[in-house]
């Protein structure tokens, strides 16, 4: 079924602030990797709501865990201990790279990064953060200060710390930038919004070395790349790089607002009660969802599924308007000859949802980890069909 993608979205309300340019499809339900609108039109979701719907839609394990927890106790703050919060922290620590075993739950990726930066600046007593060009770390004050290009929209009169950006892949620049004023280096192992740009093991290991040389801390921002999306639990596992702090969010609770800062025991030992805090972070429903997501990843062999189908996408989807592929696992950038936004619109006309990136010629795929072979075949067929389309 095809749809006019230039038509205004149906049911736009009069009161919702229109800060987002939206696509012309209004889902009302979802099942597996499929979304459906009121008319019954089904769209295959290769974007997962910005990499959030790790288990797709209506996953029985997730629905059951969240429904049971909601009925039992839908909320309590951190003023009272909760068994389900302890369980989620234990499971996440076991899922995270060795050595990272203290978890602080928050509500979003930006909040996780905000706290990681706060901890690094506070514990080292140093004023500078080294970040990487083209990175995205969030829209709050500190996270946006280390985000590349945020000058355009930052909005605050000054940043809360000194920030030095280094070019991607430039190991010499990285070593030169990290010095005795540096509290931390913050880096996404595979840059998400930049178009699934893989920074690679050499650069990440150089970041670790530079930090070790100057007693600075390494923060891996795995908000987008974490929770199995790269075919390993985290990028830290894929590249064998041990961070001091790791942040994650998005797929962590499969769609329930949630983020986490995961730290080494040494760092956590220096934090005293009251130094970090949040009202909603670590709420019982999000924690039940985290346990369900980790259960599904482990019991349904989803890491293997990601690796297998990622290889199939690489083999079959570099076709038609797609001339190459970058990224890892299910954090994929398809390099396009036409503008990626045009290809996204043409695919949506063919009932496949994908996303753009800050690179105008990279189309992003962030599908649910439960994706199936037949879904990849549908994408490959649609791309092949678009070979002769003038986009
Ligand atoms: C790598 C990375 N870090 C941080 C964030 C911010 O996360 P949130 O939007 O949950 O605040 C994002 C969001 O896209 C991201 O991709």
Q: Calculate the mean pLDDT score and round it.
A: 96
Q: Tell me the domain tally.
A: 2
The Cα radius of gyration reads 21 Å
Structural class: alpha/beta
Question: Outline, from the CA principal axes?
Answer: globular
The number of helical segments is: 13
Order of helices and strands: EEEHHHEHEHEHEEEHEHEEHHHEEHEEH
Remind me, CATH topology of the largest domain?
Aspartate Aminotransferase, domain 2
How many beta-strand elements?
Answer: 16
Task: Give the ligands present.
Answer: pyridoxal-5'-phosphate
Q: Can you tell me the residue ranges where pLDDT is under 50 for at least 5 consecutive residues? A: 1-9
Distance between the termini: 19 Å
What portion of residues belong to β-strands?
15-25%
Report the biggest beta sheet as strand number plus sense, adding barrel if it closes: 7 strands, mixed
Helix content: 25-40%
CATH C-level name of the largest domain: Alpha Beta
Going by CATH, what is the homologous superfamily of the largest domain?
Type I PLP-dependent aspartate aminotransferase-like (Major domain)
What is the annotated CATH architecture of the largest domain? Answer: 3-Layer(aba) Sandwich
Q: Order of strands across the biggest sheet? A: 4-12-11-10-7-5-6
């Amino acid at each position: 079924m095809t749809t006019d993608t230039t038509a205004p979205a149906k049911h736009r309300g009069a009161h919702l602030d229109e800060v987002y340019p939206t696509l012309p499809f209004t889902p009302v339900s979802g099942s597996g990797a499929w979304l459906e609108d009121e008319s019954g039109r089904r769209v295959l979701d290769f974007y997962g709501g910005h990499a959030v719907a790790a288990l797709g839609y209506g996953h029985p394990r997730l629905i059951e865990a969240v429904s049971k927890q909601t009925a039992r106790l839908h909320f309590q703050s951190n003023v009272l201990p909760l068994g389900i919060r302890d369980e989620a922290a234990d499971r996440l620590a076991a899922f995270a790279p060795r050595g990272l075993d203290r978890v602080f739950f928050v509500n979003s990726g930006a909040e996780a990064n905000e706290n990681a930066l706060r901890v690094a600046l506070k514990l080292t007593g140093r004023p500078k953060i080294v970040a990487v060009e083209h990175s995205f770390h969030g829209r709050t004050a500190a996270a946006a200060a280390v985000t590349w290009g945020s000058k355009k929209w930052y909005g605050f009169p000054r940043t809360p710390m000194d920030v030095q950006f280094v070019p991607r892949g430039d190991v010499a620049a990285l070593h030169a930038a990290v010095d005795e004023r540096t509290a931390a280096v913050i880096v996404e192992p595979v840059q998400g919004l930049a178009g699934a740009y893989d920074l690679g093991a050499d650069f990440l290991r150089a970041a670790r070395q530079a930090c070790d040389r100057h007693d600075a801390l390494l923060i891996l921002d795995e908000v987008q790349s974490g929770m199995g999306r790269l075919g390993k639990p985290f990028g830290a596992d894929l590249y064998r790089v041990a961070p001091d702090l790791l942040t994650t969010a998005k797929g962590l609770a499969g769609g329930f607002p949630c983020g986490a800062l995961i730290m080494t025991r040494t760092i956590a030992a220096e934090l005293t009660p009251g130094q970090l805090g949040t009202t909603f972070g670590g709420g019982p429903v999000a924690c039940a969802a985290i346990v369900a997501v980790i259960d599904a990843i482990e019991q349904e062999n989803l890491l293997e599924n990601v690796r297998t189908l990622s290889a199939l996408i690489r083999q079959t989807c570099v076709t038609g308007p797609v001339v190459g592929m970058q990224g890892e696992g299910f954090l994929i950038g398809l390099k396009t000859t036409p503008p990626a936004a045009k290809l996204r619109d043409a695919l949506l006309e063919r009932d496949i949802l994908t996303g753009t990136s800050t690179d105008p010629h990279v189309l992003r795929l962030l599908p649910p980890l439960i994706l199936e072979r037949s879904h990849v075949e549908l994408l490959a067929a649609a791309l092949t069909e678009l070979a002769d389309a003038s986009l």
